[in-house]
Amino acid sequence: MTLMNFKALGGATMALALSITTAIAGDYPERTVEIIHQYGPGGGTDRFIRAIGEPMQEATGQSVVPISIKGGGGVPAYVSFLQRPANGYTLVSLSPDDVINHALGRIDLSSVYPLVRIQYDQGMLLTSKDSPLKSLDDILAAAKENPGGLKVGVTGSAGFDDALVGQFNAEAGIELETVPFGAAEMVSNTLGGHIDLMYEEYGPTRGLIESGDLVPLVLFSDERLPELPEVPTAKENGYDVTLGRWRGFGIRPDTDPAIIAKLIELFQAAYEDPGYKEVETQSALQYRSEFLGPDEFKTFMDSETEAFSKIMKDLGY
After folding, report:
1. What is the Cα–Cα distance from 94 to 116, expressed in whole angstroms?
2. Residue 170 class from Cβ within 10 Å (0-12 exposed, 13-18 middle, 19+ buried)?
3. For the chain, N or C: smaller number of CB within 10 Å?
């Protein structure tokens, strides 16, 4: 066979392979896509997956469902994801908790391809309507009078919520003690007065804020939320704590590139869908959220790794 014929055959083979790959991606997805996450049902991440999955289901005719694998600081969820086939039908939810686990050596994020980041939230400290704490000043005064006496409910242990409260402690020179819960248990314990405060985002707490059962006292963001104009930010009071919980998705790096490209296309269309935008607005997510593709998401995650590595080291982890 001449070199020219060999090259021609090689080109034809590559073209055939590309056409087959494109056809596979064109049929994708042909069944339910599962997204593994480490949080309980009803929390912010679970709600997010369901919300972004609705326009994707409308576009493809296939469901996108959250799979909750709780416990173990998020490690079992990540391990379960790695054990699934690299066929595009299992994704993993990515958040600051995964970056923290990577920084602490619990997982290796080089085993995941950062697909898209969709949300970037802002959280706050809230208390029960019956609490004697009525303002940020009340929190600071009580914490300084009795270091460690105020209990703050957080989701998970040694994760994002812990890191944020720890950073606030360092900035304000106080000692709030975190108590880990599942999302539902955290709310019930706060409402029942068993803990003094809880950390959560606006979306999951909106109904209880509007009913008056939960009262937000301080927001961790650069600016106040228009939905909560009376709630001050920590930053405006001199405490530079603006970290937020972001949410995105990862996939196995050895997944078919055409399927990866199709998923990015589907997620971007879902992000721009009017139905999802309404959900975003209801949860006050439109102020910091921005769609990031793989390259931008990877750069963002690298910066988050650097930031959280320092924070966790400062906290003694």
Report:
1. 9
2. middle
3. N
